[in-house]
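During the reporting period the student researcher (J.K.) took over the structure-prediction task from the postdoctoral fellow and processed the backlog of single-chain submissions. One of the processed entries is reproduced below for the supervisory committee.
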Amino acid sequence: MKNTIKTVFLLAVLSVSFMMYSCRDEWNEHYDRNQSLPDQNLYELIKENPSLSKFARFIEIAGYDSLLVSTQTFTVWAPDDEAMAAVDETDTEQIRLLVSNHIARFNHSTSEPDSKVIRMINGKVYYYSHQDGVSFGGSGLVLKDKLAKNGILHTIDKQIVYAHNIFEYITSQSNTTKISSFLSSYLKEIQEEQGYDTITTLYNPLLEDRLYGLGNVSAEDSVFTMIIPTDAAWDAAYERISPYFNVYNADPVLADSIKRVQTSLAIVNDLIYREKIDNPADYSTLVSTSGSVITDVDNLFEGANRVNASNGVIYLTDEVRYDNTETWNKPISVECEEQEGRQTGNYTSIYTRTVDVNSVIADVSGNRYIEVQPTNTSAQPSVVFDIPDVLSGKYDIYADFIPAVIDGESFANDSTKLSFRIMYMNALGKQQSKGPITSDEFVTSGTKKTRIKIASEFEFPTSNYYDRLWMLATEDGVQWQEVTTKINISTNVTAKQVNDNIFTRRFRVDRIVFEPVRNK
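J.K. obtained the following structure tokens:
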């Protein structure tokens, strides 16, 4: 066993030694074998070059001078004084961004291939190009591969153009302050212990959370497309959407705060896409990071101005062109077989049925439904369903029923008559109901599926919506929800109708659907 360990260790040493000599050979192929390592560090090398005096001064202003004299290894692409002539020396933040955009960790000589990713200390990614001479990040190299004792210095003929990532763009523009303020309000400082050091990083759960985040548009190693509304577009979208998030709370200030946050979330929820969309006209549909399916892609991007970002593409728009029924106000579909959010009425039995693959009735949602029956001959069986995430707007309300023939041809003549009740919270926070809602047309069929329209353009005064920030509030994203909107379904059959075999007091219900009235 000991000999085996010795053998493995020897092989590992030989392997490492071979790699070291191999790397040394590659170094020597590029540099003079007799060239000794210079005494100057990178900062000293830059300062002694008169054509780099401005960049040397900017390094000091940015606070990177201590970095470039350290024992760590860096590569610097230094723009000459002519390339730096237009830089405002009083803009400290701009100088910091500029300098950090020209420094990378480790040695990066011009012998590296064009395909190799070189990440700057600010996270931006650039490449060498060996077509028509050598360039880096779009800047031509004047002097190259100058050795320092802690790295390599190149001189370039112009600044490497700093490309904002999507989040940087949002926060840097004078006409995107509304969305910038909203997204930035969720930034948190995270402190982590790394050895003897405490590292502080910024984290935005609204964008970065693994389950509920919209997409980390500040990440340089990701690719996104984002539609970014100008302040004018944000205000118009807010005015259009906010009436749908009228919230009741005993504290009116808190109610207004919830409304403001939920409206803002409705605006941003479908602005981000996990791909680079160069030409929206090439797409028949798109899926946003929140899962919404956009079917009229041309309309969504119409009038937007394209801007390239370091991690994707930006479309700056003066109008948020959402179809509300595809984005912030989607149809609500409640599967009746789900036991959670369902209450059984008095003298009622409920059975969950599964549709056989050979069933005469196709297109049953989820291939399951419930059968509702009375427990005695005089009862009108009923069931109440919770309807979550209803907004303060207008809906057409439907219920889908399965025909009795699904149990066999002998039941083909069975049907029933129904009544409904809509329960909801009013503007004063009190429970209110509409019903019983009855009609001679509320009759199921024994032979085919029946969709009954319970109400047309029924308007709910308050919103009962739970957003992604609420989901983020707990570790597992699951909390108890108070659902204030409910639908009661009951048979509406007289004893004579039962005795005369006109109707039964049994029904089979598939789902309840709330279709939002399209917002213009």
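The committee noted the following: DSSP finds 13 helices and 27 strands in the chain.
J.K. will present the remaining backlog at the next meeting.
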